[in-house]
TrEMBL record:
<dbReference type="InterPro" id="IPR013780">
    <property type="entry name" value="Glyco_hydro_b"/>
</dbReference>
<dbReference type="InterPro" id="IPR011330">
    <property type="entry name" value="Glyco_hydro/deAcase_b/a-brl"/>
</dbReference>
<keyword id="KW-0378">Hydrolase</keyword>
<dbReference type="Pfam" id="PF01074">
    <property type="entry name" value="Glyco_hydro_38N"/>
</dbReference>
<dbReference type="Pfam" id="PF09261">
    <property type="entry name" value="Alpha-mann_mid"/>
</dbReference>
<dbReference type="InterPro" id="IPR037094">
    <property type="entry name" value="Glyco_hydro_38_cen_sf"/>
</dbReference>
<dbReference type="Pfam" id="PF07748">
    <property type="entry name" value="Glyco_hydro_38C"/>
</dbReference>
<keyword id="KW-0326">Glycosidase</keyword>
<dbReference type="InterPro" id="IPR000602">
    <property type="entry name" value="Glyco_hydro_38_N"/>
</dbReference>
<dbReference type="InterPro" id="IPR027291">
    <property type="entry name" value="Glyco_hydro_38_N_sf"/>
</dbReference>
<dbReference type="GO" id="GO:0030246">
    <property type="term" value="F:carbohydrate binding"/>
</dbReference>
<keyword id="KW-1015">Disulfide bond</keyword>
<keyword id="KW-0862">Zinc</keyword>
<dbReference type="InterPro" id="IPR050843">
    <property type="entry name" value="Glycosyl_Hydrlase_38"/>
</dbReference>
<protein>
    <recommendedName>
        <fullName>Alpha-mannosidase</fullName>
        <ecNumber>3.2.1.-</ecNumber>
    </recommendedName>
</protein>
<comment type="similarity">
    <text>Belongs to the glycosyl hydrolase 38 family.</text>
</comment>
<keyword id="KW-0325">Glycoprotein</keyword>
Length: 1113
């Protein structure tokens, strides 16, 4: 040792410390303190070693706790090395932080720690302090969940989709990255869940759940070489069957842990020691897709007894210096043992997990680890229980090693209530415009990736990366749920808008390439140039009301988005065609089968005609734009553009298009040259009589309306007849203010109604009926703030209902939740079915739970369920199905009736954390009013057993709407010089009716990600719930497939490897393995993929020819 002195400091002792800088290079250096700084001195260090030492110096100071500089201090070494002890209660201490990717603050604010007047949270601090704390003791462990990446938008020069670990990771030096990789490799730092966010499980679509998980998993695999094996859904407000089997077992997870289940369910499971189960979420797959699942005894925080150790937390620390006051080692050990024994008494086996952390904790990680070090040390000295640093992976392996038989859980954990009047079913509908925006962007992303593949991916842009990342973040359980603050909802919308803008440029260039005659030689030779028009970002939610069709307007000179088509605003179609100009419409179909559908868009003039690519005139219809839409258009366009449009179109143009699979067709709209050639104008009829009826519909389906507004539904093909009545009502939001016994309000999370009231017009309002050769419509002004159109298309056998709701009036000081009811005479015996994330359907029984005897406290809220695809019920002859265009809440509260909640506007906070009323308002020119939403739902009645065909096939059409591109040209110039029809498939091939392509995406390494999904459950349809197959060679007729490697669902490991590693769990009551139908191995020569009911198979394809991706038309 050597004595050093410096100005202002007494002589300090300098310690020689050996630290392993590199595996084979031990280095000795001196620590000295001068002018308040601690430095390392060595005669010969490389720059890499210097960087490493900066990290290690912090570690050393944390490790020694200042004892280097105080000669009298005694350095205490805590024994944290204890592993599992066979005959004791093993308390697995799992250090974690739960970092919301937006909630009270935006993702950026959470990362950098700004806007702390709302919440003191800084994820950057968490990650910065975590690494030195782990390095200080190799026994310490930590898990991290949220990966969310950073994407630089070339169009805004903004880091628009930045969040947590990936952002932090890319900001680190090479040295620090090396240190972190070592921590991951050693198991001290473990990635759990591994997606870009902890997605919601109620209002997310299964395709979005897969996509966001895949993004995170592939990043972890690429940068760290590991595959997450544990699901960690600790905060979502209820848990879905799809999460268990699809985003659990099929991902390759060995277990799934979560925090929130119904309070009645939790109490029963505690008594029965069944908080941990084997969850079989799929009827089709049964035990072959089961997963070990555990609900925490209370929540995802430390157990009762004072074990919170963030700086300034009130929990008592372990004070183990006998020379100081407040020595409390035995007291803290006793509290630990008491809490451990209490949890062990409700848990099977001698292993329990403590979740040591909660929201945004470990901002100063050493404050947690210091106390856990002491607890492990002293608890194990005490000897009554065994404490150890652990992770969910270690805990899962320990549970599996006990060879226990576990209770079986089926179905899901919805709805969730945390007390008698606290049903978290309001968020199923909260922020309905944002929910619609997310769903539309999801369908657009699917189509954009296909077109990106045709054109060839460019890592420098434009590409789909930005949209992918913004969509991933939007799946967060406080994003699409609508449970965030308003400024955070605006931030999610802004990110989606920016992502869409870049993807839209990619889509435009790909379509331009495909329609050019020169495209036979490859898109890189495309001569068409597009300039990006100025995009106006409307952060108010009115811009989020997409509907029906995705539109992109292209020409040789410019491109403009049409995001407000649903309110009849589309500048590209509102053009003057009187001077011989033609409007060209290219219609792209992202589904794997040919599609006939009706498209419509606004036009200025009724004197138009439509021709297909063969120059044949086709049937079209002119429909007057209703006053309700005109008013909505002018107000919203003003907000969107900052000005009122010069001219308001008076008509919709509607016509039927036929589009091949994975391809497009082209149509031309021109001014009619002769009277007989023009589009048919709709006849308009006002129906006032209370005695007479009016009939609409063409073909098999007819609706007959009476003055009472009910309708008689008749399908002549299927001989189905039924009375159908549509109505609206509202639930006043409960005001619990001043109620000491139960102060629960209705709010963003909670649906707590205070009665229900019908919404009826103050006086008799006539029906307006519009008829034509393409479609018929019945218009109803239900109230001053509700407008509805019932629509039937020629040749279709379902009913489309379009609604405008809002602004919801609150001048009476009462918040309202608006629902619509579709009532039939069917006897349904309290039973109905709702989808799980748009995938499986689950049986529901009113006022009943499969797992416990339900105490009914909220007959409406307690029977609401999330709906992403649809809801249906049946009697002994018929089944009635309703499909939706976005996630929302719904139920069957009365036999023969389906109810959908469409909109919510509430004036009170529900005290679940967001601290803000769900009162969405739109301000235009200093005038603010409540949000108006517009949307659609669809219904159909089929003979019993035949409804699945429509639910599955039309459900795909709702999710993947046709994409339209517009251009203007002189005369027939376009049709003579461009490719007018295209399909990427073999000309004689389309996918089977029970199969969909979920993903066709070129990866950044040039390989292609392909996901194929069987759409039907086992036994759902007599014809289509069967094994089917897809011929890969016919999907890619112009490409030669070198290798098609089957992967796990998230494409981070080969399927065979995943199956070998998967833990097999024993379930109570199961004596033999259940026979399950699965597709067989893929013959590399034939390249035919088999798909069993509900099976999704994922492949990474390597093409032998690495050339351009455009297919010859």
């Amino acid at each position: 040792m050597q004595s050093l002195s410096s100005s202002g400091w007494k002589d300090k002792t300098v310690s020689s410390v050996k630290i392993q800088v590199q595996p084979k290079k031990p280095t000795t250096f001196l620590i000295k303190r001068e002018r308040g700084y601690t430095t390392a001195v060595s005669p010969s260090f490389t720059s890499l070693e210097v960087e490493m030492m900066k990290v290690l110096m912090v570690v050393l100071l944390l490790l020694l706790g200042g004892s280097l500089f105080v000669a009298e201090a005694k350095y205490m070494v805590y024994n944290t090395s204890q592993g599992i002890v066979k005959d004791k209660i093993n308390v697995h201490l799992v250090a974690h932080t739960h970092d919301d990717v937006g909630w009270l603050k935006t993702v950026d604010q959470y990362y950098v720690g700004s806007n702390n007047s709302i919440q003191g949270a800084c994820v950057q601090n968490v990650l910065d302090s975590l690494i030195p704390a782990l390095l200080a003791d190799r026994n310490r462990k930590f898990i991290y969940v949220e990966q969310a990446s950073i994407i630089l938008s070339p169009f805004t020069n903004l880091d628009v989709h930045m969040a947590f670990f990936q952002r932090w990771w890319r900001d680190q030096s090479e040295t620090m990255q090396h240190v972190v990789k070592q921590l991951v490799s050693s198991g001290q730092l473990e990635f759990i869940n591994g997606g870009m966010c902890m997605h919601d499980e109620a209002v997310t679509h299964y395709i979005d759940m897969i996509d966001q998980t895949t993004l995170g998993h592939r990043f972890i695999k690429k940068d760290f070489g590991v595959t997450p094996r544990i699901g960690w859904q600790i905060d979502p407000f209820g848990h879905s069957a799809v999460q268990a089997y699809l985003l659990g077992a099929e991902i390759g997870f060995d277990s799934l842990f979560f925090g929130r289940i119904d309070y009645q369910d939790r109490a029963k499971r505690k008594n029965e020691k069944s908080l941990e189960v084997v969850w079989q979420g799929s009827k089709s797959f049964g035990s072959s897709a089961q997963i070990f699942a555990g609900a925490f005894p209370e929540n995802y925080e430390p157990p009762p007894g004072g074990f919170y150790f963030e700086v300034n937390d009130p929990s008592p620390v372990v004070q183990d210096d006998i020379n100081l006051f407040d020595y409390n080692v035995q007291e803290r050990v006793d509290a630990f043992v008491t809490a451990a024994v209490s949890q062990a008494n409700i848990t099977r086996t001698n292993h329990i997990m403590w979740t040591m952390g909660t929201d945004f904790k470990y901002q100063y990680a050493h404050s947690w680890f210091r106390q856990m070090d002491k607890l492990i040390h002293y608890v194990n000295m005490d000897g009554r229980v065994n404490a150890l640093y652990s992770t969910p992976s270690i805990y899962t392996d320990a549970k599996h090693a006990t060879n226990e038989h576990w209770p079986v859980k089926t179905e899901d954990f919805f709805p969730y209530a945390d007390h008698a009047n606290g049903y978290w079913t309001g968020y199923y509908t909260s922020r309905p415009a944002l929910k619609r925006y997310v769903r539309m962007m999801s369908g657009y992303y699917l189509a954009a990736r296909q077109l990106e593949f045709y054109n060839g991916r460019s890592n420098s842009g434009p590409n789909t990366d930005s949209l992918a990342d913004s969509l991933a973040i939007a799946q967060h359980h406080d994003a699409v749920t609508g449970t965030e603050k308003q400024h955070v909802a605006n931030d999610y919308a802004k990110r989606l808008s920016i992502g869409y803008t870049e993807a839209e440029k990619l889509v435009a260039s790909s379509l331009a390439c495909l329609v050019e005659s020169a495209s036979h030689n490859g898109c890189q030779r495309s001569t068409t140039k597009f300039q990006q028009a100025k995009t106006h970002y409307l952060f108010s939610l009115i811009s989020l009301q997409f509907n029906g069709l995705l539109l992109l307007i292209i020409s040789n000179e410019h491109k403009i988005m049409c995001p407000l088509l649903n309110i009849s605003y589309c500048p590209a179609s509102e053009v003057d065609l009187s001077q011989g100009r033609n409007l060209i419409v290219v219609v792209y179909n992202s589904l794997g089968w040919a599609r006939d559908d009706v498209i419509q868009f606004p036009v200025l003039n009724e004197n138009v005609t439509v021709h297909d690519s063969e120059k044949r005139e086709i049937l079209s219809q002119i429909i007057p734009i209703a006053d309700a839409f005109a008013g909505l258009r002018n107000s919203h366009v003003n907000a969107y553009l900052g000005r009122t449009p010069a001219e308001t179109p008076k008509y919709w143009l509607a016509f039927t298009v036929s589009v091949p699979p994975f391809g497009f067709s082209t149509y031309s709209i021109s001014s009619a040259k002769r009277a007989g050639a023009r589009s048919s104008k709709s006849s308009v009829y006002t129906f006032r009589s209370e005695k007479s009826t009016v009939e609409v519909g063409q073909g098999n389906l007819m609706l007959t309306f009476s003055a009472k507004k009910d309708a008689n539904y008749v399908n002549s093909r299927s001989s189905v007849k039924e009375s159908v009545e549509q109505s609206f009502s509202f639930y006043p939001g409960y005001n619990g203010t001043g109620n000491d016994k139960d102060p629960q309000n209705s709010g963003a999370y909670i649906f707590r109604p205070n009665g229900t009231f019908p919404i009826k017009p103050e006086s008799q309002v006539p029906l307006t009926v519009m008829r034509g050769p393409v479609l018929d419509e019945v218009h109803q002004q239900v109230s001053e703030w509700i407008y509805q159109i019932t629509r039937l298309y020629k040749g279709r056998e379902h009913v489309e209902v379009e609604f405008i709701v809002g602004p919801i009036p609150v001048e009476d000081g009462i918040g309202k939740e608006v629902a619509t009811q579709i009532t039939t005479t069917m006897q349904t015996n309290k039973t109905f079915y709702t989808d799980s994330n748009g995938r499986d359907f689950i049986k529901r029984i009113r006022d009943y739970r499969t797992d416990w005897d339900l105490e009914v406290n909220q007959p409406s809220a307690g029977n609401y369920y999330p709906i992403n695809l649809g809801i249906y019920f049946q009697d002994d002859k018929k089944e009635f199905s309703v499909l939706v265009d976005r996630a929302l809440g719904g139920s069957s509260l009365v036999d023969g009736q389906i109810e959908l909640m469409l909109h919510r506007r509430l004036l009170l906070d529900d005290s679940k954390g967001v601290a803000e009323a769900l009162n969405e308002t739109v301000c235009v020119l200093d005038q603010c009013k409540g949000l108006t939403i517009q949307g659609k739902y669809y219904f159909r009645i089929d003979p019993i057993g035949e409804g699945a065909k429509w639910r599955r096939s039309f459900g795909q059409e709702i999710y993947s709407p046709l994409l339209l591109a517009f251009s203007e040209e002189d005369g027939d110039k376009w049709m003579n010089s461009h490719v007018t029809t295209f399909s990427s498939f073999d000309s004689s091939y389309s996918l089977p009716d029970n199969v969909a392509v979920l993903t066709l995406q070129e990866l950044d390494d040039g390989k292609v990600l392909l996901r194929l999904a069987h759409l039907y459950e086992m036994g759902e349809d007599k014809d289509l719930s069967v094994m089917t197959s897809v011929e890969l060679k016919k999907l890619f007729p112009k490409k030669k497939i070198g290798k098609a490697a089957e992967m796990s669902l998230s494409a981070n490991q080969e399927r065979a490897e995943m199956e070998k590693k998967r833990l097999v769990w024993k379930a109570e009551g199961s004596s033999r393995k259940q026979a399950v139908l699965r597709g067989g191995p893929v013959d590399p020569a034939k390249l035919v993929v088999e798909l069993a009911p509900m099976e999704i198979r994922t492949f990474v394809i390597d093409f032998d020819d690495k050339g351009h991706h455009v297919f010859a038309a």
